[in-house]
Design a protein that fits this description.
By secondary structure, this protein is of the alpha+beta class. It is built from 18 helices and 18 strands. Strand 5 and strand 6 form a beta hairpin. The termini are far apart. The N terminus is likely disordered.
């Protein structure tokens, strides 16, 4: 642990300051302490102004956010689960801490050290009754030959405690150099902070020294050792001491130099500004938020606050949500609950949404398709038609009130089968643009992934495939070196998110128009966000797992074939590359289409169900395309009606709607069905 620097410390060794003359040196021991570089981020928090300010601002913002458990009910809707064991404990974690204090400590630990550790009481095998934060710099992560994390060791006050992995929730700032420990923001600017501590100590102690005049003297000629000694003796006698403070020193042949000039030459002000800006950049905190108002005005201060929330706080919040959701599922066995932040009270985000909505309105009025605008501006909702929007039929399916008379005339007097046919055609027409947009997204993703995999395989091929191919065995574990599972998941989740959100919101609004023609409707943004978050993560997980298995099988099978047929190392490498190419050729076409249809259909009907539920629907009816591409189990459901919240019995599976992700793949993949919702009869 490094020593702390303060205005009264005497524990640092004195630093000798030398002032150069044109021909010789006159040296003086000013007693300035030399700060030791801090060895620990916790130390820096206590001794450095800007580190303290930045970490505090982030921690205070994080502490104000409530995290709530949302559970998906049997009807597919998401709502805050007031009875969930984590509902209360997240706000009252233990007898000694409030929820705000708990969250503040977690944020400080994470930003400063890169790690935050929570211990679950009593034992981590069931819903805990208490949550306690641990001091991160006193925790050691253990591993062994079988487990990436085999346990945790907590050493404090000479005592050591061992904890099983399930008892600890570890929140880390991910870094590619260490998969067990995170890296705090401070690491990137450790040198800058150390330099600033040196500059501060030198400057502070120089001016605090009351036994020195405010100037130095420069000799125009070389001084012998005896002459320097006599000059220093005379100087001390005439000018040293509190009573002589401030006198101008005069000695024959010496030149007066102001101390201010020395400081100007050292450029202390600009140096410390530069070091300060490095610290603020590392933490992602705008200048105005730490009280630097040199160039601030009302407008840019508001903008800086928005940037702080969107670029600094939201990633922190999402990280916490993701980790807590995963660990809550592991601890409680409940995989139908996610932890979601309540951001409704963050004024900066509400204003940002309003501003983006206003910009969206301008583009929509210019004729830009609404779906494109929503995606480009990252809006979590759609703009109501009564605000003057002009939805484009190619991107935003609607069933406007003006279409209702025409539809009624067309369907009047027809057989139920014919009415359903018209409904299906309308659904298929509206759905296709979303399906195609998702297909394009998946094709682009797989194309990029293929390039990444091929580049890594080219770099690692010689290590994966040995020169001596006799009796070589490859287990498939080597695929980890060419397929970055976590990275690919994140890339896919990010790419899919706006597509899923768009179709969910669009079809929710479509359903609202069908049930309440002409009535403005905005889908519940919180419910939509919960759905999209869960859907994108599940999609990314499943697609990445399947791809990894395919690549692993390709490597193992290719090596086995190569050994059996006597292929060389280079021939084996070419064979594997051909297999990889085949995998991505299939992914580019058939697989992209399957994913697009399945994911968009399920989300479209989820949005419709949400709107139908909001508007009081009581019944729902299953309809199909009624062609030879419809499954037998689905054809059997044609025209089946049930209560809104009662699932359809499709084959042996309960489905709330066509494409319900709760169903098995054989009942939801490439589904060609729709669902009609009806209000009270």
């Amino acid at each position: 642990m490094s020593k702390k620097v303060n205005s009264t410390t005497k524990e640092f060794p004195a630093q000798k300051i030398e002032v150069a003359s044109s021909a010789g040196l006159i040296s003086s021991d000013l007693g300035i302490p030399t700060p030791e570089p801090f060895s620990d981020s916790i130390d820096a928090f206590g001794v450095h102004t800007w580190v303290y300010s930045c970490a505090n601002i982030i921690a205070n913002a994080f502490s104000m956010i409530d995290f709530l458990p949302y559970t998906q009910g049997k009807d597919g809707a998401w709502a805050v689960n007031e009875k969930h064991p984590f509902r209360e404990i997240l706000n009252n974690p233990n007898p000694n801490m409030s929820g705000m204090e708990f969250r503040r400590l977690l944020s400080l630990s994470s930003k400063l050290t890169g790690n935050a550790f929570i211990i679950c009481e009593p034992d981590g095998t069931r819903a805990p009754t208490e949550l306690w934060p641990l001091q991160p710099h006193k925790v050691t992560v253990k591993s062994d030959s079988k487990n990436f994390v085999s346990g945790y060791v907590y050493s404090v006050n000479g005592h050591t405690q061992n904890f099983a992995p399930e008892r600890i929730i570890h929140i880390r700032e991910a870094t590619p150099t260490d998969l067990q420990y995170g890296q705090g923001s401070l690491t990137a600017v450790k040198n800058a902070v150390t330099a600033d501590l040196f500059a501060d100590a030198w400057n502070r102690y120089f001016f605090a020294n009351s036994t020195r005049p405010d100037a130095i003297l420069e000799s125009p000629t070389a001084l012998s050792a005896d002459e320097q000694k006599r000059a220093l003796t005379a100087w001390k006698k005439a000018y040293e001491g509190p009573k002589n403070r401030g006198k101008i020193a005069v000695l024959g042949g010496l030149k007066y130099i102001e101390v201010n000039r020395l400081h100007k030459d050292m450029d202390f002000v600009n140096l410390r500004k530069m070091l300060r800006e490095e610290v603020l950049a590392a933490f992602g905190v705008p200048q105005s938020m730490v009280g630097i108002l040199d160039q601030a005005n009302y407008s840019n201060m508001k903008e800086q606050t928005k940037v702080f929330w969107t670029q600094t706080m939201i990633p922190e919040i999402r990280k916490f949500e993701s980790i807590m959701t995963m660990r809550v599922a592991q601890i409680t066995g409940d995989d139908k609950t996610i932890i979601q932040a309540d951001l409704s009270k963050v004024e900066a985000l509400r204003e940002d949404e309003a501003a983006r909505a206003a910009v969206a309105q301008i583009y929509v009025n210019m004729g830009v398709p609404l779906g494109q605008v929503v995606e480009a501006l990252d809006l979590p909702f759609e703009i109501a038609d009564d605000a003057g929007t002009k939805p484009d039929a190619t991107d935003q399916p609607v069933d406007d009130a003006k279409d209702e008379p025409k539809k009624a005339a067309a369907t009047k007097g027809l057989e139920p089968e014919s009415v359903n046919d018209l409904h299906w055609k309308k659904f298929d027409r509206d759905f296709t643009p979303f399906e195609q947009a998702m297909k394009s997204t998946m094709r682009a993703y797989f194309k990029g992934q293929k390039n990444r995999v091929m580049a890594k395989f080219d770099a690692m091929a010689g290590q994966i495939i040995p020169k001596n191919m006799k009796n070589v065995k490859v287990q498939g574990d080597e695929i980890g070196s060419i397929f970055d599972f976590d990275k690919e998941k994140e890339l896919l989740a990010r790419a899919a998110e706006p597509k899923i959100m768009n179709v969910y919101v669009s079809f929710g609004k479509r359903q609202a128009h069908k049930m309440k023609p002409g009535m403005p409707y905005a889908i519940n943004a919180s419910a939509a966000g919960v759905w999209v978050e869960r859907k994108r993560l599940k999609l990314a997980q499943e697609v990445s797992l399947y791809t990894r298995e395919q690549l692993s099988d390709a490597v193992v099978e290719s090596v086995s074939e190569a050994v059996a047929t006597g292929l060389s190392q280079s021939e084996t490498i070419d064979l594997i590359k051909n297999r990889i190419d085949e995998i991505y050729s299939f992914a580019n076409e058939a697989r992209s289409e399957n994913i697009a249809t399945t994911e968009m259909l399920g989300s479209a009907h989820a949005g419709s169900f949400q709107a139908a539920s909001d508007l009081g629907a009581e019944r729902k009816t299953w309809i199909t395309a009624r062609d030879n591409r419809v499954r037998e189990t689905h054809l059997a459901m044609e025209g089946v009606e049930t209560d809104l919240k009662t699932p359809f019995s499709v084959g042996e599976s309960p489905l709330q709607w066509p494409g319900d992700p709760a169903g098995p793949p054989e009942e939801i993949c490439r589904c060609r069905c729709d669902c009609l919702f009806e209000g009270p009869k």
